[in-house]
Design brief:
This protein is an alpha/beta fold. The protein has one domain: 3-Layer(aba) Sandwich (Rossmann fold). Helices cover 38% and strands 23% of the residues. It contains 11 helices and 7 strands. The chain has a 7-stranded mixed β-sheet with strand order 3-2-1-4-5-7-6. Helix 4 links the parallel strand 2 and strand 3.
């Protein structure tokens, strides 16, 4: 099942969504003139930023969304490339000095296997810098999962794994990174506070992220029904407020392999 994204909807909260990326970049040790891999590059703007910041010799951004990559295409040059690819199936003959991923790996299951695969793509001394939304216990996610388990949606979603059950605990990530041979690591959770115009802003936010998953598994008419019920239930749970104080937890992982 292809996961469809709407770049315009996603960018409605561009400033808020970009803030964690710049916090993630602060964790990275300088890696000038190296090879960089960006997993889930989206429209390519942040990939271009990190490529230029670290004066990379080569940067590759991969994403599974054709819609996003169409936006990234004009940014390409000899040193900066974009490719449509499933992250978990990506392979490279040459290793990378830095693998970065901003708000993408939460969609991929089996993180123990995934992180081992990514580690094998790194050179000695290579760094991994990962940021993932961790709002699984927030009403936005709980209401969607509950509604999707009911008919008529359940039949459409029966072969789809829940998008909110992918993450490990902070302790599990720390143990995993240690097991994979990283000798330096940072694992932290950070809460971001956003002031949206109203409670309806929360729905606009998840229409560009979480709800794309459900939209991709339903025909248009069924999704419209799902969205209408979702809006009603979510507003009932959150209450109506103008403005609305929206909290978003995000998990940060940074780790570096030894130089030998």
């Amino acid at each position: 099942m292809t996961h469809h994204w709407d770049p315009k909807q996603y960018d409605k909260f561009k400033r808020e969504r970009n803030e964690p990326f710049f916090d993630l970049v602060q964790l990275i040790q300088p890696v000038h003139h190296s090879r960089i891999l960006d997993l889930g590059c989206g429209n390519g703007a942040l990939t271009k930023f990190i490529h230029e910041k670290f004066h990379a010799s080569y940067t590759l951004g991969i994403d599974s969304s054709k819609e996003m990559l169409e936006k990234a295409a004009p940014l390409q040059n000899q040193q900066l490339h974009f490719e449509e690819m499933d992250i978990s199936r990506f392979h490279s003959k040459e290793p990378f000095q830095l693998i970065i991923s901003n708000a993408a790996l939460q969609w991929i299951p089996n993180h123990a296997d995934l992180f081992e695969h990514l580690t094998n793509l790194l050179a000695a001394g290579g760094q991994m810098a990962i940021q993932m939304p961790a709002n699984q216990d927030y009403p936005t996610h709980l209401v969607a999962a509950e509604l999707a388990s009911e008919e008529p949606y359940r039949t459409n979603m029966k072969f789809a794994k829940s998008p909110i059950d992918k993450l490990l605990s902070m302790e599990e990530y720390a143990k995993l990174l240690d097991k994979l041979g990283y000798d330096n690591q940072i694992v932290r959770m950070q809460l971001y506070n956003h002031f949206l115009e109203s409670t309806a802003g929360v729905i606009e936010w998840v229409k560009g992220s979480l709800l794309t998953y459900y939209k991709s598994h339903m025909d248009p008419k069924l999704y419209e029904l799902f969205l209408k019920e979702y809006q009603q239930r979510l507003i009932e749970q959150l209450g109506w407020s103008e403005p609305f104080f929206f909290t978003m937890k995000r998990l940060f992982l940074w780790a570096q392999l030894p130089n030998h």
